[in-house]
Design a protein that fits this description.
This protein is mainly alpha-helical. The protein has two domains: 65 residues, no CATH class; 89 residues, no CATH class. It is 67% helix and 4% strand. The protein has seven helices and two strands. Strands 1-2 form a two-stranded parallel sheet. Helix 4 packs across helix 6. The longest helix is centred in the last third of the chain and has 30 residues. The protein starts with a strand and ends in a 6-residue tail after the last helix.
Length: 157
Amino acid sequence: MALFTHGDRLEDKNIHTFVRDSPKLLSFIKTCSGRFHVFNNKERNPEQVVQLFEQIDKIVTGNYGQHYTSEMLEIEKATEAEKYHILKENEEQRKNETEALRAKLEGEAFEKAKEKLDNEFEQQAQWQAEKNIRMRNGGFSFLNYVRTFFFQKKPES
């Protein structure tokens, strides 16, 4: 999760627009699974901290109550590499669809449609990469998780 401070400096712009307007920042946020939190430094509201802890709690719950492990990091790296590979495989199709859009649209309409198309290709590649990595690692199943939990846990004395 990325933590932004000085959210008050955004003035009339919201954080989603700010992130979307910066391709490098958007790319970084994607590496954080799209998770971020913003602190407004001018507000001394403790609710901001409570909301941050709630987000952290959701992440920990998503990791089945465990901290982020090096195994999780390796899976994340493998997923990114797989996603890159999938995007390279689909590059020709993406170019063809972009050219079809260019023939139909122009200006801002084309740019918006191209951005939407790029996001769709990116999301599809992410989903496919996650699926491929899960399958290579024996797939995730709740039953396997339960087996691991019960059979690798040390017996209590």
